[in-house]
Amino acid sequence: MTIGAKERRTDMGTRSKTSLPTVSGLKQYYSSIIAAKYAECHDWARTRSWVIEENIFDAARIETTSRYVSHLIKMIGTLSDEQLSLLVDGDDSEQIAMLWLGFCKAFPMMGMFAHQVIHEKYVTKDFHLGTEDLWEFFSVKSDEMPELKDIGRNTRSKLQSVVFCNLREAGYLSKDNELQTAALSRRALAYMTFQEQCFFPFQEAC
């Protein structure tokens, strides 16, 4: 399945740099379904309505479905048409790569963490990534963004869970918190910019 050459995105203009994710998991299967539906209509609002009507998550409450689809559309809505086509028709590693990319682009703080901490640790062969790395990063960034100092304990715990869950689901972090090389195909690399490649634990990217 192909998607038109013109790049289409969700409205990212209002996204705060300090916006943080609250839903764990990349949800590869559901994200692929949502991307395929968007490819049919090229309308995120219609796609969202369809997901809620069909309840593809088989959730007991409509609020849960609404929260999940909003989160996933926020992620995959940042992808270019070529990147979305990989999410629809790519193999497992390509779909996962596009979802991690969307996660980093939808939540700029996560993108900075991926680039400035995960990628940098990988290329310098410091492969251990612990929770202390996440909070050291936030401590440094809070000097630039004072609002980060207001993050409560529950939010911190949830954020930590989301970040490390997504890394492990992607296969980029082992159960022992060791960074693993991202499996990026030639197509995936070709469809990403230089900066986007730096969201991954991938030595040849930068």
Report on this model:
- With 206 residues, this protein is mainly α.
- It has a single domain (28-205), classed as uncharacterized protein from magnetospirillum magneticum domain (fold of a uncharacterized protein from magnetospirillum magneticum), CATH 1.10.3540.10.
- Helix content is 59%, strand content 0%.
- The chain contains ten helices and no strands.
- Helix 1 packs across helix 2 (44-54), helix 1 packs across helix 4 and helix 2 (44-54) runs antiparallel to helix 3 (62-76).
- The two termini are 31 Å apart.
- 35% of the residues are buried.
- The model is unreliable at 1-15 (pLDDT under 50).
CATH architecture label: Orthogonal Bundle
Main sheet: strands, sense, barrel: none
**CATH homologous superfamily name?**
uncharacterized protein from magnetospirillum magneticum domain
Overall body shape: globular
The CATH class name reads: Mainly Alpha
The strand count comes to 0
List keywords for this structure.
59% helix; mainly alpha; fold of a uncharacterized protein from magnetospirillum magneticum; 206 residues; 0% strand; disordered N terminus
Q: Quick summary of this structure?
A:
Helices cover 59% and strands 0% of the residues. The protein is mostly helical.
